[in-house]
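TASK: fixed-backbone design
INPUT:
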């Protein structure tokens, strides 16, 4: 296996990794430096760790099938850093994210409720599963001078993190029920369930028109902003900035808004007008061009997944415009357009021969 030391300054990380809870660049110490200490555990997790002291498995058996090196693919892209932790366990990194990869045999030691069939565990949350299962291996890899060289500390901290981020899987794996205050993920889910019928903020911005106020967008239950939900369960209110900050400080990262106590500034729903379609086609121009006739029957897969052709779309009045694009080399591309509503920024485009473009009565959008 190829290995090399990783220089964070030469490989700046992106910050859009899956499960990331902070900019990845803030976690320069890798798994041993992510996050503050979790809430104290009220039980020992020695039974959840593999018995590494009594292990007699050969290095060859542990490592079998784990063929990952520089340039290999990972769930987060091409690997640019690899370091072995123990036989059958490696850490990897990519420009965007990273994690731990286990061999098949190592992965079988993971509790079924927490096991990823692929053997990949991303670095921000899931990697605490293998560190908690093989704490002695990870402690040894951290080195004797590290604060994380104590296997018991690695094990208990890891399981605290698993409880924090994966409460349902943690309970299944440990048979231990999580109490309120032991997992912010669980607490947040319970809080949202409690406020399923309340207006809960999903976004906010400082009001320019109303100094000292915040414009908050809410939805019932706080289940995410939806541009198409205005006039339904999505509303906008004015809230004093200090009240909003107090609500956010409670730790749920969302605020319950009482419609009776705050000014409703919900914008009126947008009325969408269907775009005008054109079904006219100059039959003589089409008849005189083999390319035009062929283009009419060429199959196209729409965004919806449906397969159709231009002959069907034109006859149904679904072509709403046409346009051209000329490249730097002077080559002109002709295309027909179809959009569902007037003013839509997105539209389907179909490259066509010049003869068919000229035959269509749809207006030239340019």
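OUTPUT:
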């Amino acid at each position: 296996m190829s290995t090399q030391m990783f220089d964070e300054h030469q490989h700046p990380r992106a910050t859009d990794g899956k499960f990331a809870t902070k900019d990845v660049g803030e976690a320069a110490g890798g798994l041993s430096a992510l996050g503050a200490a979790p809430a104290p555990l009220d039980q020992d997790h020695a039974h959840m760790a593999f018995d590494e002291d009594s292990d007699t498995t050969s290095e060859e058996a542990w490592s079998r099938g784990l063929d990952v090196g520089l340039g290999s693919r990972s769930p987060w892209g091409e690997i640019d850093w690899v370091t072995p932790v123990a036989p059958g366990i490696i850490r990897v990194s990519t420009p965007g994210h990273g994690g731990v990869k286990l061999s098949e045999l190592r992965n079988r030691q993971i509790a079924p409720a927490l096991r990823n069939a692929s053997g990949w565990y991303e670095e921000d949350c899931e990697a605490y599963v293998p560190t908690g299962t093989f704490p002695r291996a990870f402690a040894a890899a951290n080195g004797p001078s590290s604060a994380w060289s104590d296997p018991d500390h690695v094990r208990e901290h890891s399981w605290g993190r698993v409880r924090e981020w994966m409460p349902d899987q943690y309970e299944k794996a440990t048979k231990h029920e999580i109490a309120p205050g032991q997992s912010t993920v669980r607490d947040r889910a319970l809080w949202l369930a409690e406020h399923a019928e309340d207006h809960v903020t999903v976004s906010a911005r400082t009001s320019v028109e109303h100094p000292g106020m915040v414009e908050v967008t809410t939805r019932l239950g706080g289940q995410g902003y939806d541009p198409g939900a205005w006039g339904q369960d999505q509303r906008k209110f004015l809230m004093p900035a200090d009240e909003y900050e107090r609500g956010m400080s409670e730790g749920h990262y969302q605020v319950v808004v009482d419609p009776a106590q705050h000014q409703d500034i919900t914008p009126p729903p947008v009325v969408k007008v269907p775009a005008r379609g054109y079904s006219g086609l100059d039959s003589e121009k089409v008849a005189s061009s083999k390319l035009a006739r062929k283009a009419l029957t060429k199959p196209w897969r729409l965004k919806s997944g449906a397969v159709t052709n231009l002959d069907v779309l034109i006859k149904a009045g679904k072509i709403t415009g046409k346009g051209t694009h000329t490249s730097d080399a002077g080559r002109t591309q002709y295309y027909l357009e179809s959009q569902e509503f007037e003013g839509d920024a997105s539209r389907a485009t179909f490259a066509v021969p010049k003869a068919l473009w000229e035959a269509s009565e749809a207006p030239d959008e340019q």
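COMMENT: The first strand starts at residue 73 and ends at 74.
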